[in-house]
Here is the input.
Amino acid sequence: MPSTPPDLLPETIRALRHRLATTQVSARAPSLVAAIVRGGRPVWLEGWGSVDSSTPGGEVQYRIGSITKTFVTLLVLRLRDEGRLALTDPLDAHLPGTSVGDATIASLLSHTAGLAAEPPGPWWERSPGSLRPEVADVLRDDPLVHPPGRRFHYSNPGFALLGALVAKLRGRPWTEALQSEVLDPLGMSRTGPQPSAPHASGWAVHPWADVLLPEPIQDYGPMGAAGELWSTATDLARFAAFLLAGDERVLRAESLDEMRGPAAAPEVGSWQSNYGLGTQLLHRGDRLLSGHTGSVPGFLATVWVSRDDDLGAVVLANTTAGLAVGGFTADLLDLVAEREPRIPAPWQPLPHIDRAVLELAGPWYWGPAPFVLRPLADGWLELGPVSGGDRGSRLRPTGDGAWIGQNGYFAGEPLTLHHDDTGAVTHLDLGTFVFTRRPYDPAAVIPGGITDPGWLTREGADDRAASSTPPAAP
Here is the structure.
């Protein structure tokens, strides 16, 4: 098996180039740069159009807008993992003095705090940050437009508050924390709050004529955590690789998974998209993408990853409108996934396994419903129904002989083993769901008990029905 993924097939590269070129022309974007990531590295990166009379490459900076929010989320979750805060904490516990101190940190990360979408005053993305010099200036006099926790409502001021929270707890600007805690470990040397050459200029394209208007480049002040960063296709390819495979130097794997979990119900009519913690989610058929889009005057950007395909896609453009950048980026990812589906690694036996865990492998029954329990290479367990259904779950060991569900119906529910006097496992208890080695095994403790003589034929069932009487009403 090769240690690195092979380059894409020539016909796939040509299809990507054709899609990039036709989109740049139809959207009339001054320039586009796109990249595909697989196996931890870019397997395609190409630009179309021009920046300073040259075709842009992977080192040209573009402003990435709201992709900034995902970076800020990493900083907040790092603080949580260090024990400095809890996601259930109210903002006031760590950043007192705002008018929304009751909002939880989780609700700000997931846009469910009910805050207004934009700060007061003129269009903040085209205005100098000096108009809002203090964090309190990003909130309206009536900052809530919805009851907290009731619905998803995208809020840029919410992330301004989170940037201020990071700065308060770290004792330095959030951008400096980002540099040392995230960008340096990932090798993202061309990402930061200020552009440096070579970088693209931001343009608005006239809707009915092929002429350009320069967009102002502003320092956003306290609103910077909502969309200030600049980056390159090469750096965002590194970021996509991190979102796919993780890096414990930056964030625990469990916390990275947490970012991708839906945090609120989507809008009615928009069931294909959702939001986690600082992370957008998008369904494309059977494929689940996670990442973020970005849009500020003069620039559009997207990073999408599909973990099941081990694929990431990055797009950067220097135009204000006219390009559905999120859909276009997803199209590029789909194109590669469908033409060059992921080739699985060779099957290998488990490197090691506890003998007691091996004895748990195989069929278990929830009442009469058959399930299969499989030990995994990472020490986790996987429990799933034989005939399909929604009661399966991956289970993480807790270190004390028990496990805890990580997804699906049993997410967060504990799995404990019950033993008889000889030490043999009689049954599993997963959030009060009892699993036995035989359907309704009489040797286990079954809620409601097992009536003698156990399983009945039709004749026995008829006799049982005729002789039984329902319990008296209380």
Q: What stands out?
A: The radius of gyration is 27 Å. Residues 10-27 form the longest helix (18 residues). The first strand starts at residue 31 and ends at 38.
